[in-house]
Design goal:
With about 350 residues, the protein is of the alpha/beta class. The chain is about 40% helix and about 10% strand. The chain is built from twelve helices and ten strands. The chain has helices at about 40-50, 60-65, 70-90, 115-135, 160-175, 200-210, 220-225, 230-240, 270-280, 305-325, 330-335, 340-350, and strands at about 15-20, 55-60, 90-95, 140-145, 150, 180-185, 195, 215-220, 245-250, 290. Helix 9 links the parallel strand 9 (about 245-250) and strand 10. The radius of gyration is 20 Å and the shape is globular. It binds D-glucose (GLO) and magnesium ion.
Length: about 350
């Protein structure tokens, strides 16, 4: 315990990319069967370097399958062994996220369940996820609060639910001196309304926690859009608080199910603004990675089942070029003159590749 303590650093403007094994999906959705064959975890690991990715994001049970049936000792032994495999592959574990939404005990949420025994299960499982992270040599824990919310508003006391959430966060911080928690806000799906729907909610919990310096956020493009917010403003808010520790870039076409489309695929201008904010905010200089939470189209052929990752990375890199070649002097002139039509034209023509 307490192995992880080095502070990662990165080069400003030199981005490192990551994704999770769930991003090479089997094409299932709630209405039909899978459309592609499963890919073994070991084969997925081989894809990372080939596509130019450095970081692997894990759910606790991606790292140690069947962990509920194993002793803590053997969970830690398996995670330690995985850490060595990653090292040999030249890969870095970016984060571990307790997957609390698939267990029968968490059907009504984990940390905010009405049952004290089930809340305890959620906390115990999260502490085990921290032990896994520690064994992997990684300090980041992601909390996507999937089922922490309600379908029937009266079924939980929302004020008390936030007390439970804060208490769970404090127990995690207390369990390990170096791990840090990144809350990934999302307003809905699978719940009607989820608690902690925006980064503002997440950061307010961070400040109330026993160690505010170790609680921050991960912002996903699609989640911000599902909340009706501009993803780049959400990112800027977190950067202002020095609490943007990871991102899940992708895209989302309006208020539908969480689509996890390729970065930039639905709205190029929003993608431009996200990259602009990340560039200006020095994102990556403390070792933060550019995570891509994108999914293969449901009916994409097996043979191209990783093209969405390569493409999203490429779209990000092309957008970095667009941001760096944007005429900042002209921008400043238009702002000074309050010529917003001129500014709009500058942006659109730049995105369209015109001078
Ligand atoms: C779902 C989330 C999910 C998380 C992942 C890591 O909407 O985006 O993919 O990012 O489980 O916690
Ligand atoms: Mg995500």
């Amino acid at each position: 315990m307490a192995k992880v303590q080095t502070k990662a650093t990165g080069d400003r403007g030199k981005y490192r990319f990551s994704f999770g094994p769930w991003n090479i999906s089997e094409g299932a959705d709630p209405f039909g069967p899978q459309t592609r064959d499963p890919v073994a975890f070991a084969s997925k690991l081989k894809v990372y370097r080939k596509l130019g990715f450095a970081g692997v994001q894990f759910h606790d049970d991606d790292a140690v399958p069947d962990l509920n049936r194993l002793s803590r000792q053997s969970v830690v032994a398996k995670a330690t062994a995985l850490g060595k495999v990653l090292k040999n592959e030249g890969l870095e574990p970016e984060f571990v996220a307790p997957r609390l939404w698939e267990d029968p005990r968490t059907i009504d949420g984990g940390y905010t369940s009405n049952s004290p025994a089930l809340r305890q299960y959620a906390v115990d499982r999260s502490l085990l996820a921290i032990d896994i992270a520690d064994a992997l040599g990684c300090r980041n824990i992601v909390l996507w609060l999937a089922r922490e919310g309600t379908y029937i508003r009266e079924s939980k006391n929302a004020r008390v639910a936030h007390e439970y959430l804060l208490s769970a966060i404090n127990k995690m911080l207390n369990h390990h001196p170096y791990i840090r928690i990144m809350i990934e806000p999302k307003p809905n799906e699978p719940m009607d309304h989820a608690y902690v729907p925006t980064i503002g909610h997440a950061i307010s919990l961070a400040y109330l926690s026993m160690d505010p310096n170790r609680v921050g956020g991960l912002i996903e493009t699609a989640h911000a859009k599902l909340a009706g917010l501009d993803p780049s403003d959400e990112m800027a808010f977190a950067l202002f608080h020095k609490k943007l520790w990871s991102v899940h870039l992708n895209d989302q076409n309006g208020l539908k199910f969480d689509e996890d489309k390729n970065f930039g695929a639905a709205n190029l201008r929003e993608a431009f603004n996200q990259v602009r904010v990340l560039e200006e905010g020095g994102y990556g200089s403390e070792g933060e990675m550019v995570g891509l939470d994108v999914k293969t189209f449901r009916t994409q052929k097996q043979t191209n089942n990783t093209a969405h990752l390569a493409n999203s990375k490429r779209f990000f890199e092309l957008m970095v070029r667009k941001v760096r070649t944007f005429d900042r002097k002209a921008e400043a002139r238009f702002i000074k003159d309050r010529d917003y039509e001129g500014l709009e034209r500058l942006v659109i023509e730049h995105l369209l590749g015109l001078k």
